Amino acid sequence: MATAREDSAAHEADQGAPAADRSAVPPAAGPPAELGPAALRALAHPLRIRILDLLPSHGPLTASKLGEIVGESSGSTSYHLRQLAKHGLVREVEGRGTARERWWERTPGGFSISTVGKDSPASRQTAEAVNMEFLRLRHERVMAFVRAGQGADEETLKKWHGTTTFFSSNKWATPEQMAALVAAWDRFATEYIEPLSGQEEAPGMIPFEVHFDAFPTIDPQGNPL
Question: Helices 46-58 and 74-86, interaxial angle, to 10°?
Fold first, then answer.
């Protein structure tokens, strides 16, 4: 019964209002909208998940540049981008590019994928497979960061000391207490993480990633996972 959430940030110029205007109306706390069946089926392809995974940290990319990164032809990545766009998962960057070379970005707002409420075993399996692939890619990024730290010089390590953390905590709680914890995280994300959106072009900015996991460590029968 897993639910995975994917967040994305929009560029300042694409919001239609200055940052000061947007900050006056903070986003509502809570999980993003869940993907519908058609969008979920469209996403059930490893390369499309990889594309969605790359765009937030790399910023807008063309099909050609995406092809270079993932080792595919621009025709292949262009096709998959169009399929993702049909379901509102990516969009063209307005005012940038040409008819031959389009720039694409993640659609702001994020989405969630849950195995709960699916009308068939196949739908649940699709949701589970997509979640697993997103988690696999996330683990790859974590390990890449750890490996990079092994080769970093002392000056770099001191500069970033205190800016990163990997936190784990094992407690006992009721489902209601866990739900309250997740709701508190949603409020925290709205207050502290959402205001960081739209800073891609500011000096000194680098992409970063925040994880928050909360899940039972036993199955419904009480067996360890």
Answer: 90
